[in-house]
Design brief:
Layout (H helix, E strand, L loop, with lengths): L5 E4 L1 H11 L1 H22 L4 E10 L5 E4 L2 E4 L6 E14 L3 H67 L5 H35 L7 E4 L13 H11 L1 H21 L5 E12 L10 E11 L4 H4 L1 H65 L5 H35 L4
Protein name: TolC family protein
Keywords: Cell outer membrane, Coiled coil, Membrane, Transmembrane, Transmembrane beta strand, Transport
Family: Belongs to the outer membrane factor (OMF) (TC 1.B.17) family.
Length: about 425
């Protein structure tokens, strides 16, 4: 189906729609919700345990021997038993296990949020790559259309000169072949625009037959560069992946506290009330109620020889997480340095190509005048036109590269 409707799309709208409809980010948001529920569950451990029990059943015939195992007696007993119980238990102290578990759940919630931010930055850069490709294709089409218009005018002049007997038919044929090649290149560019637009439509949750039109003014926006050291400081402070590793290290330290809590006693307050029938000792068919309140203290002696290795493992996990932080800091320095230099390189390439475009245009103008005055052959003119077209397309690609490397640098600094 042909794409008929078009939509102007800015970078901000690209990011907004892309984040909103990305399936991976939707999964990350669900994981965040699950982490919030786990945090609530961890806090519920502070609340008392309350149980209500009900038992009912048949009482078997009791047998009583008063003289060894001879002369058994069969006392009367009720046929049914009933038992109603209410048990209450409030933990008072568990060696900090509850507090550490709550802290762990809170950090896992923070971890889930940072994972979302990390994935979001990757997704934005992936969307931007497609957007810049679309951007470049639109500018290429603009250059090709202008070049075809000029080629058509040039072909008219060549046909006129052929009628006047100034040139041979060979020049006409070569000009027509060159024009055909340009038209094919334009058709391929328009097909590529359609394909990239459809890919973005799908990722942005829109009708895939909608033709997207990028914000071409973005090419000419001035982007100021900060110093390399400033970018490094920003990356250490803001990069979501760096924050995520720090959270993992904090989680590992918290795990040591949870493991060590097994060495400490558990203290809780309990209360219970039981209403039962019949009386358990005499089997009298009467209700009996009793209650009790007290403090329960337990100490897991087995943890003294079972838990040591787990504590050592938790400490080694902290060292491992700290090592991963150091590795990430090294990676950040390399990533920021690469993005910084590539962006500088892209800016310098644009300036160099601006001069090349001016030179190519002047060269084409000179060769066109020389050809029209029969001072140059058609090959020279077509070569000059090809050079001009190639340089203009290179400039479009370079301008697009500037925008992409700028956002790469923003991502490396944790600001995308």
């Amino acid at each position: 189906m042909a794409q008929t409707d078009s939509l102007f799309l800015t970078v901000e709208q690209l990011f907004e729609k892309g984040v909103q409809h990305n399936l991976q980010l939707q999964a990350d948001i669900m994981k965040e919700s699950m982490a919030r529920e786990r945090a609530k569950t961890a806090r519920a451990a502070q609340f008392p345990e309350l149980q209500i029990g009900l038992k009912g059943g048949v009482v078997g015939q009791p047998v009583v021997w008063e003289h060894g195992l001879s002369d058994p007696m069969y006392p009367d007993a009720p046929d049914w038993s009933q038992n109603y119980t209410i048990d209450f238990s409030q933990p008072l102290y568990q060696g900090g296990k509850i507090r550490s578990t709550i802290r762990k759940a809170d950090m896992e919630k923070q971890f889930a949020g940072l994972q979302t931010l990390t994935d979001q930055a990757e997704i934005k850069l992936g969307l931007l790559n497609r957007y810049m490709n679309l951007f470049s294709l639109f500018k290429q089409r603009e250059v090709l259309v202008r070049n075809i218009e000029e080629s058509e005018l040039r072909l008219q002049d060549i046909r006129r000169m052929k009628k006047e007997g100034l040139i041979t038919n060979n020049d006409v044929l070569r000009s027509e072949m060159q024009l055909t090649g340009d038209r094919l290149a334009l058709q391929e560019t328009e097909n590529s625009i359609s394909l990239v637009s459809q890919q973005l439509d799908i990722l942005l949750g829109q009708d895939e037959n909608l033709l997207l039109s990028p914000d071409t003014t973005l090419l000419y926006q001035a982007v100021a560069l900060q110093s390399y050291d400033d970018y490094i400081v920003q990356a250490y402070a803001n990069d979501p992946a760096m924050k995520l590793l720090r959270t993992q290290t904090d989680l590992a330290r918290n795990e040591i506290r949870i493991t060590r809590s097994a060495f400490l006693p558990n203290v809780s307050m309990y209360a219970s009330n039981t209403l039962a029938r019949p009386v358990s000792r005499t089997l009298a068919d009467m209700y009996n109620n009793n209650w009790n309140v007290g403090i329960s203290v337990s100490y897991p002696l087995s943890s003294l020889y079972k838990n040591n290795h787990k504590v050592k493992e938790s400490k080694m996990m902290v060292s491992l997480r700290e090592n991963e932080e150091e590795q990430k800091m090294q990676g950040i320095r390399m990533e920021v340095r690469s993005a910084f230099l590539r962006h500088q390189e892209a800016l310098q390439r644009v300036e160099a190509l601006k001069l090349s475009v001016r030179q190519a245009e002047e060269n084409y103008r000179i060769m066109q005048n020389r050809y029209l005055n029969q001072l140059a052959i058609l090959t020279d003119l077509l070569d000059a036109n090809s050079v001009r077209l190639d340089v203009e397309l290179q400039l479009v690609t370079a301008r697009t590269r500037v925008i992409y490397t700028y956002y790469q640098l923003q991502k490396a600094c944790g600001r995308l």
